[in-house]
Amino acid sequence: MEINAQTTEKVQKNFLEEIIENDLKEGKVQSIQTRFPPEPNGYLHIGHAKSICINFGLARQYGGKTNLRFDDTNPVKEDTEYVDSIKEDIHWLGFDWAEEHYASDYFEQLYDWACELIKKGLAYVDDQTNDQIRENRGTVQTPGINSPFRDRSIEENLLLFEQMRQGKFNDGEKTLRAKIDMAHPNMHMRDPIMYRIIHAHHHRTGDKWCIYPMYDFAHGESDSIEKITHSICTLEFDIHRPLYDWFINALGIYPSHQYEFARLNITNTVMSKRKLLQLVKENYVAGWDDPRMPTICGLRRRGYTPESIRKFCEDIGVAKRDNLIDYSRLENALRDDLNKKANRVMAVLHPIKLIIDNYPENQTEELEAVNNPEDESKGKRKISFSRILYIEQDDFMENAPKKYFRMTIGQEVRLRYAYIVKCTSCEKDDNGNVVAVHCTYDPATRGGDTPDGRKIKGTIHWVDANNCINAKVNVFDRLFNAEKPDEVEEGKTFLDNLNPNSLTVLTDCKLEKSLLTAKPLDKFQFERLGYFSVDYDSTQENLIFNRTATLKDSWAKQK
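Now predict its structure.
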């Protein structure tokens, strides 16, 4: 247990902290070296954010270093676009790496080590197809069948492997496999493929190579080259650990070691890069940075802060077992952060006119509004007030029930920062829709005070119709209706769980004029409505806001 000096609370160390502290205490390592090793085949998502926070956070906590290493061993799926986005996301989250590496930096060394394993009789070239290899691997209950090419001579294997490198064979014609045990209880140890032939242009090495190492052969060796002391990855790689150790032991190289933690699973979204790519390619979303996506760039565009994501990752902790985290916990971390930071403003998303009949027609006055009650240093601002205002459609009800405390005929309500008004009537169009509400105001209640002490239960927000700006607002909901979108009936896919109402575009919103100078990614609390962020595509002539989150968890009510 660790004592927090500021709060005097006992802080329970997670199992990774215990491992690192024990290794340092026993002298197994002198300093901590971690790495974050993404494959550049897509954009990072919130699950990667947890891994980033763990790897960089642990190294920072114990005075160590973290490398960024791109696992670029599959040229068919990888691109510099993804490399650039990954670096941007890590920096945005508040971390920097000690060294930047690529698995492709080590291709020559990996090739030499593969040759060394051949010379030791621990690797061979196989002519079987991928389907044959898969079929002959056996099952958990039955052992695999040795390849008919398993006993090739060392000389023949070296020659064939060199010819693979020279490009003398077609894709899939041959592979290099480790010679371990086709009856091993761990399927990954049944003569795993080390190299495959891929004639494709690589984003860094060009056409120099046509054979590429598999993840299991490249990863541990890359860790060893960089002298990674604690190779921390998600739980699904635990069955790969024996192979990780086998390659390192067989080569007699620096003994990096792998540790696994539970991956992050969040309700109402998917974390598979393949599925996220499908959403992008098939136009179910507007791109990787669509604010409904769980990608880091999507969360950034939606209005999330790096502090809120780091706090979320800290709060959910580091576990050894997979669990499902409710999306509301991510939103709550954001609310806690923006409540302290975001200036309050007034905006009306579904406007109807409010006409104050006894207010002078040509008069406009300035009222004072608090920018952020959580931070006095943010000060106050001036907002204009006149005879015609805009209010939310939902804030008026012609025939209201007993406990309705907003605007209804004959009832008083407080206008935020302004006056007490009493509703008198409403106007309707030919279809019976309310288009304007009439009221009278009490001049003695400026600022919302009631000198006579009468109690006003309802307070609503508004904007001055004569001094406001128009804006478009994107209102987002969960991308998927189902808590676990991947769990589907036979014949269906995760796409069947898409929420058709995940985006609502409001085009006639009215905002107070102070927002005219708002810049992309500026964040505000629209009073009573939620947190909103300025979209990248926004301009002074065409303001666009994205709703980041509601003020309270509205999703819980729908479950």
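Confidence is low (pLDDT under 50) at residues 1-9.
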